[in-house]
Write a structure and sequence with these properties.
By secondary structure, the chain is an alpha+beta fold. About 40% of the residues lie in helices and about 30% in strands. The protein has a five-stranded mixed β-sheet, with helices on both faces. The radius of gyration is 16 Å and the shape is globular. The termini are far apart. One of its GO terms (molecular function) is nucleic acid binding.
């Protein structure tokens, strides 16, 4: 966003900063939940050329690529991982795995953790499968 546009929208930066804080808090809660379930968090906010992955965690032979969604309610959170986002996350996961040959033999799964106010985060294992090309 241009500097002129940011000045014209004074509340935009505050809203963006609040959303960023909410997202970071949700990711911290999600990591906590996953650790309680026996996962070892390997990466938080991993960023590659293809995009960002919120959490990457391992439990046994499963490598979970996790998208964390912080929304006002669970229904909104559940519907907020759109096809375009799933494709981006799938590409980012392939990029991450290309740099980690030690993880090559694991079963990769794409999960979602939904976080909403005044509720414990909810983990949805195997929330989607990447589309084959």
């Amino acid at each position: 966003m241009s500097a002129a546009r940011q000045r014209a929208m004074p509340g935009a930066n505050a809203r963006r900063a609040a959303a960023e804080r909410r997202g970071r808090r949700a990711e911290a809660w999600a990591a906590w939940l996953l650790r309680l379930k026996g996962y070892r968090v390997l990466a938080r906010r991993w960023r590659g050329r293809s995009g960002e992955i919120d959490l990457i965690a391992r439990r046994g032979r499963i490598l979970a690529v996790i998208e964390v969604k912080a929304r006002g309610d669970e229904a909104t959170a559940a519907g907020s991982v759109l096809a375009k986002g799933r494709q981006r996350i799938g590409r980012a996961a392939a990029e991450y795995l290309a740099g980690r040959p030690d993880l090559a033999g694991l079963d990769v799964r794409f999960d979602v953790v939904m976080a909403s106010p005044r509720r414990l985060p909810r983990h949805l294992p195997d929330a989607w499968r990447p589309e084959s090309r």
